[in-house]
Amino acid sequence: SPPIDDHSDVLVIGGGQAGLSTAYFLQRFGLGDRYQLLDHAPDSGGAWQFRWPTLTLATANRVHDLPGLGLIEALGDDRPEVAARAAVPEYFRIYEERFGLRVRRPVHVRSVKRVGDGFVTHLGDGRQITSRTIINATGTWDRPFIPHIPGAEEFGGRQLHTHDYTGPADFAGQRVLVIGAGISAVQLLIEIAREAEGAQTFWCSRREPEFQRREFDPEQGRAAVARVEERVRAGLPPTSVVSVTGLASTPAIEAARADGILDWRPMFTRITRTGVCWDCGPGPPTGAERLDVDVLFWNTGFRSSLDHLSPLRLRGPGGGIVMTGRLTTTVASDPRIQLVGYGPSASTIGANRAGREAARMVAELLGND
Ligand code: FAD
């Protein structure tokens, strides 16, 4: 890892898809010597290095190529069956090398504060970096979200989130309730039902998932992104762009449906010591419908990982950050701060474009000083 300078005009925080795209374009726009890129993960790959081992390039949605060098070109071949946690980090490593992107890692950013007409960033080891601008690209992986349901602390079994899943073998012989309606929930429900020996699975979520009979419709995808964009322009917390496009029905999903694995139930209202129940109050459920399980497996998504920016007080009354600019990468209250991979750009393709736009905005802001 290159040494850390105590000042750079541009500080990029996070070296996943969004951070690498940003760095690529900062170089293209002549700011190659004026930025530092920090990441607290041990290796290249952004959040992909932490995905569960059974997620492959074929079962991921689609990992869009970074600008200037595609995955297949970098790796030399197409590897649909390879674990995404191996292939994508290797791709990013080659990418960083090819374009000379100097990522400082592992470097944890604890907080960013305003000072004078710029910022001071406090690192996990006590060091500080001053900068004139901040481009934040910290993704969502470090902020798994579990909704609050009464009784959660009473549950005597195991609770885990997508973030902590390591494979189906862990669930052998157990009664597992999968919670969530996104692609991770459905894929992992099927995986556990099929591969964890002797496991019994159950599934519920707040809204019933809709399975689309046809392939991903780009028009629908654009409309979903536009809705998230509208939210962040209004200062509302973003919803996920990768989850709102509906679930494409695949042969694996059809087969699971035929085998009774996708037997959906509405969300329970309370967690008990031994499981969950519907329409029940505190105390042992009596007449109410109940389900006893060993595991509550929350596939309930992620939130933006922005705790280190809290001293900047960016959140407004809507609960989110009011965003502006052509691709909503700019914090409306302070254009020296760009957020990439946030809101409508929280997809691999969105992160690419946002990186370019944020680099362009910062280049314009710094001008020819
Ligand atoms: P990340 O890849 O999360 O990178 C953020 C980086 O910031 C990390 O390297 C992290 O170490 C670093 N960081 C965070 N906080 C700090 C800090 N305080 N200090 C220093 N460094 C920090 N999108 C798609 O388009 N296609 C898919 O197939 C797809 N599959 C997905 C599957 C799952 C299970 C999930 C959860 C998401 C998926 N997504 C997918 C969405 C995906 O997360 C984004 O598309 C994209 O990978 C995010 O890139 P990013 O650079 O914004 O974030």
From TrEMBL:
Highest taxon in the source lineage: Bacteria
InterPro entries: Auxin_biosynth/cation_transpt, FAD/NAD-bd_sf
Alphabetic keyword roster: Oxidoreductase
An annotated Gene Ontology molecular function: flavin adenine dinucleotide binding
Keyword Membrane: no
Protein name per Swiss-Prot or TrEMBL: Putative oxidoreductase
Annotated organism of origin: Gordonia soli NBRC 108243
